[in-house]
Amino acid sequence: MYKTIESIRRMNEKVTLLGIGPMSKTVVDASIESAMENDFPLCFIASRNQIEKNELGGGYVESWDSYDFSSYIDSKIKEVHYDGVVFKGRDHGGPWQKDEEYSGKIPFDESMKNATDSFTYDLEAGFDLLHIDTSKDPDFPGMVPCDIAVGRVIKLLAAIEKYKANRSMNHTVYEVSLEETREDYLPISQFKQFVELMVSEADKRKMPRPAFIVGNTGTLIRMDKNYGKFDMETVVKLKKISDAYGMILKEHNADYLDSACLKLHPELGIGMANVAPEFGKRETEALIKLYKMEEEFFSLHDVNGVEKSNFLSTVFSDIKKSGKWMKWVPNKKTDMGMIDDPMLKEVIISVNGHYFYSKDSLIKARRILFDNLRKFEICKDPDRYVKDNIKRGIQRYVDGFNLKNLSSKIREYQDYESKNHLKNSAMIAFTGRSYE
Fold it and tell me: Model's pTM, two decimal places?
């Protein structure tokens, strides 16, 4: 991944890489198809809640651990003959970044050990990018103080680098961040303090500087909207600080931003942006539409003896029991009763459905739904219908971030650099002088 990042920098391409949250197997499949069709570098960014080793609680996406996830991607790209660039990344790795660890308030030493075990397992599984996020601590509900957050980053970075050195592992790209997703954001001075301290401590110990630094650009996701306000002036200031230390500014929570805003990202120099919930929502939206087609057909035709999918009621039951939907409520003090509002039921399902697609009840409901759609020729290829809706969402970012044909441009540049290097080496050997 480092080579790709460096090539983009040297090419002076105004692009913003897209980090895709693997919300489900269908989202992974749709992402690979989109990368093939648009020829852009594919980067998956998996949180510990999504993908995690079983000993640390597992994840909700297909019950995959890091090896399962990595192996599935490798087998899928081989199956479809995709020869583009694919990166596998850990998003929000670190202490208390698994929901159960935070809510259970596990001890500090245990949380750090779990984080280290998670990172090293990712490396063994072939991950390229590790996001070290020390912004969570149940003892600091507002925000972890800067010096403590940096100290924990350095401790984890040292443990990871030691593990790699003992196994002669390749270069790893690191990402760091200071603050949790929140409605207000830190003063620029605190971001600068974090970066300066982070770089100083890493340099002092001769450890690699993180390639990416996450800055709060004003984005904030609640339900199916970006409630934040993308702040260009803030981005310019964050970028200036990042550049001063040779780091790449990265944005989280780019979901649901409008197309005009997305087009500003490459121009402003945001090197990468993560999108996840929006793609999960697009999958569920498509499934809801298919369910409505099934319901309409059954209401108009006599199909006694045929089992209905009951998809909507099944997924809603799981959502309501889990309480996961509360994470996305705009105002937790006043909006907790919205789960019982019939007008909001479909929105809540579309935003939260992806958490449950690995459950037996939803696997069965989805299978029955697709069987009925095909059997009665309501929709000949429901799987394609769902994937295409996800791909339309991904396309917004491909277009806005100038990603079309980027993989080919990078390959051409790297081939050119390689030939120039060989040519220059030959000239030095023959004349003692550089060709350049």
Answer: 0.92
